[in-house]
Every structure is written in C-alpha cells, then in structure tokens.
Amino acid sequence: MQAFGRFVRSMDIEYLVEQYVYIPLDGETIDTATLKEMLQNKRKSVAGTIFLYNPTIAPIGYNTKSSLASQGYEFDNAFCELSFDSACNLFSSSLKDGYRGKLVEIKYFFGINRDISDNPQITEHFEIDIDRYYSNQLTIYDQEANYQDVQNIRLSGKFVFFASGNKFDKQFKNVVNYIKNTALQAKKVGKDVVFLYDNNYDANEALELGYFLSPFANAKLKDVRANAFKKAFSTNPPTSVKIK
Questions:
Q1: Which of 32, 114, 206, 236 is deepest in the core (most CB within 10 A)?
Q2: Which pLDDT score is estimated for 136?
Q3: In whole angstroms, what separates CA 189 from the centre of its chain?
Q4: Helices within 139-241 (DSSP H only)
Q5: In angstroms, rounded to a whole number, what is the distance separating the alpha carbons of residues 193 and 226?
Q6: Cα–Cα distance list, 9 to 138, 145, 156, 170 (Å)
Q7: Taking 90 as the threshold, does the pLDDT of residue 120 lie above it?
Q8: Structural domains in the chain (count)
Q9: Are β-strands 159-162 and 46-52 bridged in parallel, bridged antiparallel, or unpaired?
C-alpha cells in the first residue's frame, strides 16, 4: 500500500489537507502523477472514505518529531508520498481483496498535523472555533485547512467509515456535534456509514450520538480493535462491527 498527502502551512501551523491511500495490484506502485490522473475520475478510482480525528504523519524523508518547516520541507501545495503511521500500517493489513487498484480517501475532522493527544487546550480551541465557524467569525485555526464544511462536504465512493474514536469530554459539545453531524450528513447524501461500536449502544444509537470506536487501542484492546477493523473491511463496501 502507498499513502499520499498534501500539506499547507498557515500562520506557522502545519495542516494535512488531503490524503489518499492506494491499495495496489500485485507488485504495483504508483507515483504522484498517476495519483493525479486517478483523481480526475474519483467516481471510478475512489472506493470510499475513512474518517480519523487528526493526523500526525510526514512525507517520506521527513519525521514527526519536529515541524516540517524546520526540516526544510517545501510547502508547494503538491501531493507527496507519505511515510506510514500507525493508521497506515493498519490500513495496509486490512484493505486487500476487493480494494485492489483503488484509492481510499482519508479525511480528518481536524487537519492540524501534530500529536494533540495530551493537549486538552487544543480541543478547547476546537470547541470555540466550531461555534465561530458556523457564525462566520474569525477562528483560531485556519477554517479551510483545519475543519470540514459539513453541509457541503464532498465524499467519493460508496462508504464512509468513521474511526475517530469516542473519548471526548462531554463538555466539548460542539466537537461531539460536529462529528455526529458529519456522519448524519454522509448518510443523508447516500453513503454507507459504517463504524465500530460496542454494548453501550446499538448501531442506530451510536450513529445518532456520534459514538464511533477507534480501531487503535493500547494493551489488551489493541488486537481486539484491530481485528474488528479488519473484519469490517473483509467486504467491499465495509460493514459496521460490534465489539463484544
């Protein structure tokens, strides 16, 4: 599998604004020129979309330990091939038969390209920004680079798999509603909306609440979540899977 992305830098903040993974035919690789050709006909070339929370990924030859700008990366708005992160490793082992020769788009609820898992202040900024976004006010982060325009979102392929996770403090109501409304909008425009869920809610309730389990976990749940994701993608389009 190969991963490709497009980065932008705005007000000294780096964002990943577009990403695709390519599931190859046997022994095949593509370059960015071929990728752009495939994207001319997304209806034929893109199988669907996977939604994650936010990226922490780098082009080949760079790393995520420091900003791409400090490493001399040129933000030329062009696609580049990406090094694999943990998500790409899981996708590579899961998306096989039924997806070969196709692209899957990877979208993010928040495009800021950095590890924010231990930084609740950034989530607080997201909470403020989402309210400002829908009232046409100035936001902390770049509106186009960091957020999805939910009502006008463009989705290619048959499915949207939501893998953003559900570990959000309930005080962040705007963040939760933003994720939930994106899923409901995907369903409204006719996409198969799929995800992982558990005994806390049935599938319909999970969708209405935006309760989507992450396929990534630590300790004893790591293999359980990964195997559930692989099961979901054992068919094309994928299916929702309940983790018991």
A1: 206
A2: 85
A3: 19
A4: 143-146, 173-188, 203-209, 221-232
A5: 19
A6: 18, 9, 26, 31
A7: no
A8: 1
A9: parallel
